[in-house]
Structure formats: structure tokens, C-alpha cells
TrEMBL record:
<keyword id="KW-0411">Iron-sulfur</keyword>
<keyword id="KW-0004">4Fe-4S</keyword>
<dbReference type="GO" id="GO:0051539">
    <property type="term" value="F:4 iron, 4 sulfur cluster binding"/>
</dbReference>
<dbReference type="GO" id="GO:0046872">
    <property type="term" value="F:metal ion binding"/>
</dbReference>
<dbReference type="InterPro" id="IPR017900">
    <property type="entry name" value="4Fe4S_Fe_S_CS"/>
</dbReference>
<feature type="domain" description="4Fe-4S ferredoxin-type">
    <location>
        <begin position="1"/>
        <end position="29"/>
    </location>
</feature>
<dbReference type="InterPro" id="IPR050157">
    <property type="entry name" value="PSI_iron-sulfur_center"/>
</dbReference>
<dbReference type="Pfam" id="PF00037">
    <property type="entry name" value="Fer4"/>
</dbReference>
<protein>
    <submittedName>
        <fullName>Ferredoxin</fullName>
    </submittedName>
</protein>
<keyword id="KW-0408">Iron</keyword>
<feature type="domain" description="4Fe-4S ferredoxin-type">
    <location>
        <begin position="31"/>
        <end position="64"/>
    </location>
</feature>
<keyword id="KW-0249">Electron transport</keyword>
<keyword id="KW-0677">Repeat</keyword>
<dbReference type="InterPro" id="IPR047927">
    <property type="entry name" value="YfhL-like"/>
</dbReference>
<dbReference type="InterPro" id="IPR017896">
    <property type="entry name" value="4Fe4S_Fe-S-bd"/>
</dbReference>
<keyword id="KW-0813">Transport</keyword>
<keyword id="KW-0479">Metal-binding</keyword>
Amino acid sequence: MALLITDECINCDVCEPACPNEAISEGDDIYVIDPDLCTECVGHFDEPQCVVICPVDCIPHDPNHAESESDLMSKYKRITGE
């Protein structure tokens, strides 16, 4: 399942550089996560780095993009070419 940044985001900019897939970018009002690039850090880390580093806890799972662990690993392999 991809992650989602909620409107509780304070635009602190710590999540964007923490994302190994470059799935996070600055949106109009808050940072946004591209669900096509988000693997919840599967293949890179044991837990999503944006969630770990977020000071306001505003990055839950995106219910509109449900994916299994194997789906996330397949996406990781597609993105990285591994």
C-alpha cells in the first residue's frame, strides 16, 4: 500500500530527501507522494523512512492504493531495474 501525506503536513521538508524512490515532492499546499513510486521503502529499508522522520505523524497508508508486500517488492524491482 502506498503512503499518503495528510493536510496535517507542516511543510518541514524532511520527508522529501528521505525517500529513496524520489516519490515525495512539494505540492501546492503540502508535500505529496506519487503512489506509482512509493514502495514504503520495501527493498531499501525495514520501515518507511518518511514515516520515521516525520515530526507530526501525518503519513498514513493510502487506502486508495492497497498493495501487498510482494506488490511493493515488484514495484521496487521495476523502479530500480533490479
